Amino acid sequence: MNLESILFSQGFGTRRQCRGLILDARVAVAGQPCADPLATFDTAGLVFSVDGSPWPFHTHAYLALNKPAGYECSRDPQHHLSVFHLLPPQFAARNVQCVGRLDQDTTGLLLLSDDGQFVHAFTSPKRKVPKVYVATTRHPLDETQLQALREGVLLHGEREPSAAVAAHARGEHELELSVLEGKYHQVKRMVAAAGNRVEALHRERIGGFALPEDLAPGAWKWLDAAALDALRNPG
Ligand code: URA
């Protein structure tokens, strides 16, 4: 692929802007400056840099973000900053989207991708991917609430009850809940329907992929093939 197309595909601006970056000698490939927009490179494992900042070529972007509270998943947020403020602008430019949404005040594992099939597969109600949340509850947890969550609670406006695939108390006010669907405010509504209230919510895991321990709140990382496998195979 030629260098202009490489930069364009990775979200470095319009074709004209990408060509400009190259002609202005701001781009290097594998450590060597390259000012020819038509120079071609094998993209497998390619790392180029713009103004000295390295960028690994990825045909598609698959990312994990440790979402802090106070960020909206929308690109066009109403009341808070967007999670896209936590990411390099190249990702918004290449149309990376959130894979399902977390509420503004929910923290933890958020996936993002520009692979439409991947986004669809993980957000489709047909594809039942378990998602593990930890909720801090206002009132002490008890067995009646946990059983209601496991057996299913009827949410306002729904015909069928929503059940957790697993629900147990990690502490008096700490609930671990695993759900398959991703309905609007699902966990908060389920906990409310079971007679308690969520004070704080954190997503720890999607499928077999847990939020990496070394990923600080607000930090993101590329997902490698092993992480993508873990996501698809909860194990
Ligand atoms: N359920 C909720 O209620 N909120 C989230 O952010 C995610 C799941």
TrEMBL record:
Stretches of the chain forming a coiled coil according to its record? none
NCBIfam families per UniProt: pseudouridine synthase
Which protein is depicted? Pseudouridine synthase
**Which parts of the sequence belong to the Pseudouridine synthase RsuA/RluA-like domain?**
62-193
PANTHER family in the record:
PSEUDOURIDINE SYNTHASE (PTHR47683:SF4), PSEUDOURIDINE SYNTHASE FAMILY PROTEIN-RELATED (PTHR47683)
| Organism the protein comes from | Paraburkholderia pallida
Catalysed reaction(s) here are:
uridine(516) in 16S rRNA = pseudouridine(516) in 16S rRNA
Q: Per UniProt, which keywords does this protein have?
A: Isomerase, RNA-binding
